[in-house]
């Protein structure tokens, strides 16, 4: 009866091995294939008799051989399993993705387990490689991350201009001020608004005003560095945070921006709209009680530019 039970148990194990939805490969110490289940047959297009005694590396040349050997030898030496996950290594062997839901992916994302297999003499002569299809998990997580990034971007973006909204750039200014307090770093703030904007709205209509604001925002985008934070303050007023720049550098930046805006022509319903901006500059070299005071200083310089005739740059402290 025991032999019959053993035979039945072996039969069941073989049936399970062939039907489970994971890849199972058994390799000997020379990395030659000994066992190749149905999952591997279906995904690779190779039948067991075609791969038996073949080198694993010849079957899958995409496998990083030195890394895989090191991983396997560690399993044999320690006698404990090892694992890989798709987030660290998208796949071990490159299989096409046949999942109906995630069919747009070019390959199957995989998690793997490497198990030591003891022989009857207790020595480890084989290892078992188990390959799990993690494509659905990977795609769902990536889509969730992409959605979260998009929501994060939307939450900090001004809808009309595509620049940062006031909440975000003011938060960046707060962080820059804290960095200055700790490390004595420098930063400057440029604030500006569009001259006689009410005349544009009254003379050409609010759609034209929106178009002008968008045109100015596009000029700003072309002028700023990747490290700068450009945003809308409200209405026709804008702010640009320039990390690691003092007021002299910010003044040069502001002058380039002034000239660039003065050179553009906004076309609306067959009419050409010319415009100018007034700008105020301040930096962290002055003693401040908080980051809000830097906004006040830049705003005072902006106000002085408007009182001085507009279409100009003024710097705090005012001469």
Automatic annotation (TrEMBL):
Enzyme class: transferase
SUPFAM superfamilies in the record: Nucleotide cyclase, PYP-like sensor domain (PAS domain)
GO MF terms held by the record: diguanylate cyclase activity
EC code(s) of this entry: 2.7.7.65
Pfam families listed in its UniProt record: GGDEF, PAS_4
Protein's recorded name: diguanylate cyclase
Keywords: Kinase, Nucleotidyltransferase, Transferase
Keyword Kinase: yes
Catalytic activity: 2 GTP = 3',3'-c-di-GMP + 2 diphosphate
Source species, domain of life: Bacteria
Listed Gene3D superfamilies: 3.30.70.270, PAS domain
Residue ranges constituting the GGDEF domain according to the UniProt record: 185-318
Keyword Nucleotidyltransferase attributed: yes
């Amino acid at each position: 009866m025991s032999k019959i039970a053993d035979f039945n148990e072996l039969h069941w194990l073989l049936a399970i091995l062939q039907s489970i939805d994971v890849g199972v490969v058994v390799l000997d110490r020379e990395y030659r294939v000994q066992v190749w289940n149905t999952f591997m047959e279906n995904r690779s297009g190779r039948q067991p008799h075609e791969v038996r005694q073949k080198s694993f590396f010849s079957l899958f040349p995409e496998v990083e051989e030195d890394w895989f050997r090191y991983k396997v030898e560690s399993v044999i030496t320690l006698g404990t399993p090892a694992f890989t996950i798709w987030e660290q290594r998208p796949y071990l062997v490159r299989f096409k993705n046949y999942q109906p839901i995630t069919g747009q992916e070019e390959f199957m994302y995989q998690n793997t387990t490497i198990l030591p297999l003891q022989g009857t003499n207790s020595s480890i002569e084989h290892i078992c490689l188990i390959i799990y299809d993690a494509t659905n998990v990977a795609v769902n997580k990536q889509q969730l991350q992409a959605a979260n990034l998009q929501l994060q971007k939307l939450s900090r973006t001004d809808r009309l201009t595509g620049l940062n909204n006031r909440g975000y750039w003011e938060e960046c200014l707060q962080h820059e001020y804290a960095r200055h307090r700790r490390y004595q770093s420098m930063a400057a703030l440029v604030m500006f608004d569009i001259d006689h904007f009410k005349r544009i709205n009254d003379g050409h209509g609010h759609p034209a005003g929106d178009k002008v604001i968008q045109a100015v925002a596009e000029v700003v985008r072309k002028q700023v560095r990747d490290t700068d934070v450009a945003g809308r303050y409200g209405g026709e007023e804008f702010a640009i945070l320039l990390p690691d720049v003092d007021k002299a550098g910010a003044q040069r930046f502001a002058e380039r921006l002034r000239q660039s805006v003065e050179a553009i022509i906004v076309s609306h319903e067959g009419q050409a709209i010319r415009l100018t901006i007034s700008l105020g500059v301040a930096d962290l070299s002055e003693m401040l009680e908080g980051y809000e005071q830097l906004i006040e200083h830049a705003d005072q310089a902006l106000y002085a530019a408007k009182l001085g005739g507009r279409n100009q740059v003024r710097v705090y402290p005012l001469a």
